[in-house]
Amino acid sequence: MAKESSFKNMVITLSVICFICSALLGVVYSVTKAPIEAAELAKINNAIKAVVPECNNNPSEEMMKVEGSVVYPAKMDGTIVGYAIKVNTSGFGGPIQIMVGFKADGTIYNTAVISHSETPGLGAKISDEIPTRTQIVGKNPAFSNLTVTKDGGEIDAITASTVTSRAFLKGVDTAHKVFVELQKQQ
Description:
By secondary structure, the protein is of the alpha+beta class. The protein has one domain (49-185). The chain has helices spanning 7-51, 131-134, 162-185; strands spanning 64-66, 69-76, 79-90, 95-103, 108-115. It has a 5-stranded antiparallel beta sheet with strand order 1-2-3-4-5, sandwiched between helices.
């Protein structure tokens, strides 16, 4: 026998449905939280390994924040051999998160793109080993003009994606400023 449709019955029914859905979402969140965090940590650790010289410490355990960026010191037998600096910048499609690795002398060891939302086929090429990324390896930003050639610099931009290249190089410049700040603190 069907209950009579009333405001009270509708509110109770919708409240029960909302409670059940909220409980299910809470369970799914608690089940997926740890694997998502583990995957994110693995992504960061892989990026660190790719951008710093060989080290025997775990840089992610010694991370520190400097000027809004996250710094991971790489050490060999207790001596700093480099830094991995994670920075955020804004590209054409939105935020770009990059990891820039510096040797102890300030030269760029390597870079890695952690995440981006650039246009597929154009700005998304920033994740590949493209000239914009490979041209800066081995250079010291203090002595090089790390801007795109359209702006008078020495770095070739990604074809049809100058905005993304500029954003990437701006991120590298931000990382270098953090590196300089680290040198002042020592």
